[in-house]
Structure formats: C-alpha cells, structure tokens
C-alpha cells in the first residue's frame, strides 16, 4: 500500500503505511529504504540519510539503498561521497543500470568530465540500447566536443525509438542552427518540437533566432513574442537581448 500511495505522490499516506510495516518488522529493509526516499523527495536529507543508514546496518549490500545514498550525496554536492557509494553498487552488480546512469549523470552534469560520462553511458547502452535519455545525453556530449556526426546519430537514434521525443528534435535543431548553419533543417526540427509540445518554449526562441539569421526579421519578431507570451509576459534576459537587436533592425 505504501508503494501505491508513493506512486500517487501522496507521501504522507505512503509514510504512514511504511511505518505500519515497521511496527510488524523493525528490520523491514524495503520499508526503511522507502521512508528514506520519501524524506529525500521532501529534501529532508538528514532524515533520509538516517533511514538509509539503518538499512545498511541490517544489510550492508542492499543495493538500492547504496544507490540512493549516492544520489543523496550528489544532491548535496558531495560528489566524492556520491561516487564512493555508486562504486560500492557496481562492485556488487557491475550491470546495475540505475547506478551506471547516475554515474554518467554525475560526470556529465556535475563534474563536466565528458570522457568518464561517456564510459558509464556506453556501459548503460550495452544493457539498454534503446534508452533515449542516454542517447540524448551522449549526443550533447559529442556535440560539445564538435563531433557533430556522432552527436547527430545519437539524436536520430532517439527519434527511431521515439519519433515524438521533443528533446531530441530540439537538440537536432540546435545542432543544425548553431553548429552547421543549416537553417532549413533547424527550422524543420524546431517546428516538429512545437507540433509535439506547443509549450516547449525555448523552441520559439530558437525559431526566432533562425529566422533572424536568415534576415527574416518579421518572422523573428513573431516567434520571440510567442516566447515572451509563454514566459507569462516576462521579459527575461533572452528576450531583452533579442528584442534589442530586432529594434536596431526596426522590427
């Protein structure tokens, strides 16, 4: 029952049922781990850690808790501790895909160590070759390294698996716009993003910028105003800088 309420995001009810389970069995590692995760979601990291450590006192090789502790330390920017716990998982199960993904994210997002990120993402793809998130992340890494063809292949692989993946379409749009100066292809992919998700706001901005690069200032103004509208009428830094340039062009 606790898992049911957790899936429904009713964390209070979930906590109640997990605590009931502990009244029956104080060493119920699943209940203790799930309580830790509930407190992690609520950003009560101290309490989350207490529950996770209780699990490990009972079972030092409880793999999901070791992974969760790694994520907990990562959320608190203690990347050394995070990696330490993730590596403990892989010593027990080198193919535990959640941890492989987490290590990829740790090196990709937090440490900007793209070489190590690639290593863990590739290991994940050996287990789950159709993981669209990893293909998107690898695409971004290769794009940042100017390996544009490899990046393009990863983004297109995402679309083979999931033709309506807005992130992959947007990433392809960025690749064609900023790295290949292929404005025609960029527009195709940005427009596809908006067909999939009309509220994918950055695509309006990028379309506006693409039209600007083609010197179609009227269309550029049109899309930047869409962008502003979806931002609730707020003129953020993106809007202000673009607006200033268009005003210089009398648009």
Brief write-up:
The chain has 251 residues and is mainly α.
Description of the molecule:
By secondary structure, the chain is mostly helical. The chain is 78% helix and 0% strand. The protein has helices at residues 2-7, 11-24, 29-41, 45-58, 63-75, 79-92, 97-110, 114-127, 132-144, 148-161, 166-179, 183-196, 201-213, 217-230, 237-248. Helix 4 (45-58) packs antiparallel against helix 5 (63-75), helix 8 (114-127) packs antiparallel against helix 9 and helix 12 packs antiparallel against helix 13. It is elongated, with a radius of gyration of 23 Å. The mean pLDDT is 92.
Radius of gyration: 23 Å
Mean pLDDT: 92
What global shape is seen?
elongated
Order of helices and strands: HHHHHHHHHHHHHHH
Structural class: mainly alpha
Largest sheet: none
Distance between the termini: 59 Å
Low-confidence stretches: none
Strand content: under 5%
| Number of distinct beta strands | 0
Number of helices: 15
Give the helix level as a range of percent.
over 70%
Keywords:
mainly alpha, 251 residues
């Amino acid at each position: 029952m606790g898992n049911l309420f957790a899936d429904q995001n009713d964390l209070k009810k979930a906590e109640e049922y997990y605590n009931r389970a502990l009244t029956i069995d104080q060493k119920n590692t699943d209940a203790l781990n799930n309580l830790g995760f509930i407190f992690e979601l609520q950003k009560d990291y101290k309490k989350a850690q207490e529950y996770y450590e209780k699990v490990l006192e009972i079972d030092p090789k409880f793999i999901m808790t070791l992974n969760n502790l790694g994520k907990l330390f990562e959320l608190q920017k203690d990347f050394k501790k995070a990696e330490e716990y993730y590596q403990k998982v892989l010593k027990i199960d080198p193919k535990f895909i959640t941890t492989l993904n987490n290590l990829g994210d740790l090196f990709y997002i937090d440490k900007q160590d793209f070489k190590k990120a690639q290593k863990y993402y590739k290991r994940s793809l050996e287990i789950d070759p159709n993981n669209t998130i990893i293909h998107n992340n690898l695409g971004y890494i290769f794009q940042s390294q100017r390996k544009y063809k490899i990046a393009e292949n990863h983004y297109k692989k995402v679309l083979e698996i999931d033709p309506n993946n807005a992130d992959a379409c947007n990433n392809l749009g960025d690749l064609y716009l900023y790295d290949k100066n292929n404005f025609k292809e960029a527009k195709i992919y940005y427009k596809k993003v908006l067909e999939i998700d009309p509220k994918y706001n950055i695509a309006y901005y990028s379309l506006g910028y693409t039209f600007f690069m083609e010197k179609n200032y009227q269309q550029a103004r049109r899309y930047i105003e869409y962008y502003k509208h979806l931002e609730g009428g707020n003129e953020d830094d993106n809007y202000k800088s673009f607006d200033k340039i268009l005003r210089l062009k009398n648009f």
